[in-house]
């Protein structure tokens, strides 16, 4: 573990304070028993010194001083005010202790390295838990402890994601609070040529490469990115990024529009402005289909297909898609059907399964809770809440594992017509929104170039 633990010894502090105290004594009036007498007159003046001089006369005798002589200049000493002295004492107190969380670290171990006793560590952990789920502590988070002049801890700060800090004040009573930095969302636009993979092309252009996953998932059933991309295709991207006051970026970028020119066709994807996760796919300006995830506003964190398992580390088939979202976020049925199973399934954790006809089933896994009254046999409609996001079973963080199975065989959920239909969609409204988005993209592209 890489820790920066700076301890300032008390010897230097004592010496510095002693020096200031000495300086203060110099300026005091001399004690009463110290006195001086006027010099006695000499019987005869001293012999004049060689060379030109300056005549200095006094009441008793003249005197000749060499012109080169100058009285020594002593530095002016100021009386040390009590407030300044206290400021120095505080400055020489124990500096803040800081550490970066690394794999395998626990809060208790880190606080013990800050010389915090067991009872105080327990109280700090309880106070932090009020504001933050400590199970989400992960590498990269930062922990710091501020100290009083007497060396006792005064404030413990845990800096987590997106610039958010959890502060615990150690006083007569222990209090905690969450500090969220002020931020704003800026829109950015980029136009690039695809050469090689979409991922590499985005990365070279300085566009978040993770957008390649969004494009592949939504266009995967329509475009074969291995065979259809010949090189030189134009790709337009419009996205939003949350930025703090100091200009640093926090959170994940959010894509809102993409356009891919492929041969004689133009595929455009428009994501909902309400952050519902719904996306509409256009082909040459006409609606091709819409995609609506089971969790509104969630981020697609893992795709369908072979992947390296995040816990076991080996290559395994991922039979669904994962949506990262906060624990407790509502989960909706993606299509009408009948509840066929509620319960636990090994690594899936708490699960709800819905049958759609005789051959299709959707599975919602890692749930933290199921609505009271939901039971096997109940009929549900599309959009009806059937659970809440959790991390039960084999999961590294709160998320929804979502599957679609046809005749028992898992298929890509985003490629299934059951979940991607343009029925009952207002075509005129969708066309108007697309035109407005194209204009907005062109405006931001000019500003960014």
From TrEMBL:
Entry keyword Signal: yes
Segments forming domain M23ase beta-sheet core: 316-413
UniProt keywords, alphabetically: Signal
GO MF, any single term: metalloendopeptidase activity
Source organism, top-level taxon: Bacteria
SUPFAM superfamilies for the chain: Duplicated hybrid motif
InterPro entries documented for this protein: Cell_wall_metabolism_enzyme, Dup_hybrid_motif, M23ase_b-sheet_dom
Signal peptide: none
Chain segments annotated as coiled-coil in the UniProt record: none
Stored PANTHER family: L-ALA--D-GLU ENDOPEPTIDASE, PEPTIDASE-RELATED
Protein name: Peptidase family M23
Taxonomic classification: Bacteria, Pseudomonadati, Pseudomonadota, Alphaproteobacteria, Rhodobacterales
């Amino acid at each position: 573990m890489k820790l920066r633990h700076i301890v300032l010894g008390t010897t230097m502090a004592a010496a510095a304070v002693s020096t200031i105290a000495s300086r203060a004594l110099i300026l005091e009036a001399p004690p009463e028993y110290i006195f001086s007498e006027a010099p006695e007159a000499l019987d005869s003046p001293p012999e004049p010194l060689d060379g030109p001089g300056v005549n200095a006369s006094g009441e008793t005798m003249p005197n000749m001083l060499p012109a080169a002589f100058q009285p020594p200049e002593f530095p002016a000493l100021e009386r040390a005010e009590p407030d300044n002295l206290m400021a120095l004492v505080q400055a020489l107190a124990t500096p803040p202790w800081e550490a970066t969380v690394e794999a395998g670290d626990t809060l208790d171990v880190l606080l013990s390295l800050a010389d915090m006793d067991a009872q105080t560590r327990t109280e700090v952990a309880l106070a932090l838990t009020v504001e933050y789920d400590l199970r989400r502590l992960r590498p990269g988070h930062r922990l710091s402890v501020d100290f009083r002049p007497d060396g006792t801890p005064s404030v413990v700060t845990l800096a987590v994601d997106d610039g958010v800090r959890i502060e615990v004040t150690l006083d007569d009573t222990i209090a905690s609070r969450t500090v969220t930095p002020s931020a704003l969302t800026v829109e950015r636009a980029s136009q690039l040529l695809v050469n090689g993979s979409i991922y590499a092309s985005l990365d070279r252009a300085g566009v978040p490469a993770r957008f390649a996953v969004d494009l592949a998932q939504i266009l995967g059933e329509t475009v074969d990115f291995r065979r259809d991309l010949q090189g030189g295709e134009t790709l337009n991207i419009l996205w939003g990024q949350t930025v703090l006051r100091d200009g640093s970026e926090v959170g994940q970028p959010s894509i809102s529009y993409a356009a891919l020119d492929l041969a004689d066709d133009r595929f455009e994807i428009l994501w909902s402005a309400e952050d519902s996760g719904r996306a509409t796919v256009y082909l040459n300006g006409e609606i091709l289909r819409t995609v609506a995830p089971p969790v509104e506003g969630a981020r697609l964190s893992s795709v369908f297909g072979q992947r390296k398992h995040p816990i076991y580390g080996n290559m395994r088939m991922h039979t669904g898609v994962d949506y990262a979202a906060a624990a407790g976020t509502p989960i909706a049925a993606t299509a009408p059907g009948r509840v066929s199973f509620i319960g636990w399934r090994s690594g899936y954790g708490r699960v709800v399964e819905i049958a759609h006809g005789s051959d299709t089933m959707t599975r919602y896994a890692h749930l933290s809770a199921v609505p009271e009254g939901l039971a096997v046999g109940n009929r549900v409609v599309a959009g009806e809440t059937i659970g809440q996001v959790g991390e039960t079973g084999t999961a590294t963080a709160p998320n929804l594992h979502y599957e679609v199975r046809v005749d028992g065989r898992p298929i890509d959920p985003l490629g299934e017509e059951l979940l991607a239909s343009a029925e009952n969609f207002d075509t005129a409204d969708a066309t108007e929104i697309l035109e407005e988005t194209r204009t907005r993209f062109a405006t931001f592209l000019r500003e960014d170039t």
